[in-house]
User: Fold this.
Amino acid sequence: MSPRIPLAFSALAAALLLSSCAAPSPTPPPPSSASASPEPTPVATTAPVDETPAADADPTCETIITSGTVDALTSQGWSSKREELRIGETVVEGGLLCMWADFSTASDHGQMYGWGALDERAAATAQSNLKRDGWLRSTQGGLVYFTEDPAYAIATDEDGFGMTYEFGDGWVKFADTKQGLLLIDWKG
Assistant:
């Protein structure tokens, strides 16, 4: 007997042993009446997702600001607390003021965003009271802004604006800085 035969036999036995340990290839199930039509294949799309709330939806702290802002705030561990929206002594019926912060820790860090529907009469009263109380009025692109006097502001944006109200046609926005108004995208 040649020394090659046991070596060849050993190699063959090892190959058979290894192939018996390999997982069997899956076999497709037999066709049935329930699965006669092929499964649809998901297709990636770059079409934008419409995140606009329904026209009859009520504003919430999570819907008045952009979804990216909500994601950024919640990823920091922040949450929101809702209060009524006030412009001085004028309560904006159905409006909301949202304070975003980490309420589990005592801190002075937070952000405020507000929105409310406001008729012409209530808007005129609110603006008159803000002017009386020393808020600074400006206009831009058909919108009216009232900003607190920077000398008394707790925090300001890079342009020096602190808490600011923005009045539009039938609505008012509020943020702790004028730049913060850009993050409020509720349409009402």
Summary: The beta strands are 79-87, 90-101, 111-117, 136-140, 143-147, 164-168, 171-175. The CA atoms of residues 45 and 51 lie 16 Å apart.
